Amino acid sequence: MSHRCRCHSPCVLIAVSLLGVISLCLTALCRAQDSEPQAKPRPQNVRPVFIPKITISKETTWATEPIGPSGFIDYLSVTNRHYSQGVTPENNAVVMLYQATGPAPDHHLQPDKFFQLLGIKPPPNEGDYFETVGEWRKRTGKVVPEAGFPALQNLAETALTRPWTAKEFPEIAEWLHSIEIPLRRITEGTERTEYYSPYVSSEEGEGKMFFVTLPGIQVGRAIARALVSRAMLSLGENERLQAWSDLQAVHRLGRLMGRGPSTVEGFTGFIIETMAIDGELRFLSETRPTAKFIARYLKQLQNLPPRSLMADKMDHIERATFLDCCQHMARGQLTIAEFSEMPNFWHENPEQTWADKLLEQALIRLVDWDEILKSGNRWYDRCVSAAQLPTYRQRTGALKNLDQEIQQLRVQTQRLDRLSILVDKSKATRYYADTLVSIFLSGVVHRMGGENVVRQRFQNLELAFALAAWRSEHDSYPANLAELAPQYIPAISDDLFNNQPLHYQQTASGYRLYSVGKNEKDDLGLAYGDGKDDLIIQMPFVKPAH
Q1: Does residue 114 contact residue 137 with C-beta atoms inside 8 Å?
Q2: Which residues contact 377 (CB under 8 A, 6 or more apart)?
C-alpha cells in the first residue's frame, strides 16, 4: 500500500499544483480585467487577449513612443527611426549593396516594407547580381579538372592569402570576371557615408524584435572575400592601384556593415575589417611602396568611416530587444522556450511540456512586469557603463564581474522551488526578471571583446605603414619604435591590452611587432594554441591565425 502511494504521489502533486495554477490564472485575469478600462465588445468567436499592466516611462519601457495599435511601444519603429536619421537613398550604402545582390541576399527575399523604408523600389528578381564561387560553379557547371567543387573551394581559399595570376587559377579568375558589375556597384556603395538596413518583421501586425532577420550578413562576408581575392590577383599581375582600391573597399565595407544596430552586425564588421587588414599587410610586404605613397595610404586609412561602438549597440538595440520580448511575453505572445535553451520549470529538458506552458501562462499574469522592465534596464545600464570605462583592464574587469553575477542568477533561478514562486508575487517577479537577464546578457564579455582586438590590429597596421616609410628612406628598420615619431607617425600608442609598450624587434629579414592580446600576457609572439593570443605582424608578411 505504501509503495503504491509513493508511486502515485508525484501525479497527485502535479494535479493539485495545476488546480492551483488554474485558480491563479483565473484570479489574475479577473484582477487585470477589473483594473483595466473596459475594452470594446469583441466578436463572439474571438478569444480575448490578456492585457498586462505596463507603465510607459523611461524607467520601464525606456522608449516612450511611438505606441503601436496594441497600446505598447513599437520597438521596430523606435529602431528604424533612430538609425535612419540623416539617411537618404543617395547616401545609404545599403541601397547600392541591394543593387549588387538583388532583393534576396542570403537567399531570403526581403518584404516590400524593407525597400519602402530604404526609399527605393525592390530590385528585379533577375539581374547582374553577386554570386559566390559555389553559386557560380553550380550555375555554370564549371569545375576544376579531375577535382570538382572541394578543390575549387580550396583554390578560392588560397586566392585570399597571397598574390596569384589568372594563369595559375583560371577558374577563380573567371568567377571574379563574371561578377565584375556587382563588385563595381559594391565598391561605389562603400564610398557612401551612411549605412542603414531597416529592421522589418515578417509577421503581420507588431513584429517581434528577437525574430527580425539580419539580411546581408553572410553575403557581406562573401563579398569581402571576393574583393580580397581580386586584390591578390591584381598584386600577382602587378596592378597595385587596383589591389589597393579593392582592399580599401573591403575596409570601408567592414566599417559600414559594423555600424548596423546589433552586436552580430558589429562582429561581422570586425571580421571583414580583419580581412582587409591582413590584405593591406600583404600589400605592404609585396609592393615596398615609397614614403610618399605610404603617406597617401595612411591618409586613406585615417579617413575610413568611424567604427561602431559595441557599447552603443548594447545601449540601444540589445536593450530594445530585451524590452520588446518582455512586452510580447507579458501579452502571452512569446515564451521562453522560443528564444532560449535554458531548462524549464519542471526538468532540465529545454522542450516545453504542457505543464511548463501552463505554468508559464500563470506566471506572466502573476508577475509585476514594470519591475521586470526596470530590472532589465538597470542591468543594461551597468553593462554600458562597464563597456565605456577608459582602459581595457577596467572594462574587462567590470564586464567579467557582471558576467559572473549573471551566471549566478542562472544558478539561483534553477535552484528555486518551482511551486513556491506561484504563491509569492515578489518571488515570481524576481524569478522571471533574473531568468530573462541571464538569457539575454549571458556571455557579455565575449560579445563586447571583439572591438578591442580589431582596434589593436588597426593600430598595429598604422605602425606597419610607418615602419615601411622608415625602411623606404633608410633601407632598414629602426632599432625601436620611438624613432618613428613624429616624422612617420604622430605618436606611438601603448598596447591597448596592458597599457605597456608594444613588443618590437628586428629580425634578419625584417621585424616582428606584436600586442599581448586579450589574455594580457606576453606569449612570446605566439597567436594560437593553449590560450595564446598575441596579435602579431611579421615582415616579410606571414598571415596570422585568427
Answers
A1: no
A2: 59, 60, 62, 319, 323
Nearest in space to 451 (alpha carbons), one of 298, 313, 278, 319: 313
186 burial level (CB within 10 Å; 0-12, 13-18, 19+): buried
Indicate the angle between helix axes 180-189 and 240-257, nearest 10 degrees.
60
Rounded alpha-carbon distances, angstroms, from residue 17 to 355, 361, 365, 423, 546: 10, 14, 16, 11, 53
Give the Å distances, CA to CA, from 256 to 192, 259, 267. 9, 5, 12
Please give the single-letter amino acid code of residue 61. T
Give the model confidence (pLDDT) of 408-453 as tens digits. Answer: 998 888 777 767 787 889 988 998 899 999 999 988 778 787 899 9
Angle, to 10 degrees, between the axis of helix 149-159 and the axis of helix 170-178?
Answer: 80
Joined together, the cell numbers standing for residue 415 give: 535552484
By residue count, the chain amounts to: 546
pLDDT per residue as tens digits for the range 25-80: 434 444 444 444 333 444 444 344 567 889 999 999 999 999 988 899 999 999 99
Q: Which residue stretches of 179-262 are H helix?
A: 180-189, 217-236, 240-257
**Calpha distance 476→467 (Å, rounded):** 9
Q: Tell me the DSSP string of 355-390.
A: HHHHHHHHHHHHS-HHHHHHHHHHHHHHHHHHHTSS
List helix spans (H) across 319-443: 319-330, 354-366, 369-387, 392-415, 425-440
Give the tens place of pLDDT for each residue, 124-169. 999 999 999 989 988 888 665 545 556 777 888 889 999 999 999 9
Output the CA–CA distances (angstroms, integers) from residue 144 to 9, 136, 174, 218, 379, in the order listed: 68, 13, 12, 25, 54
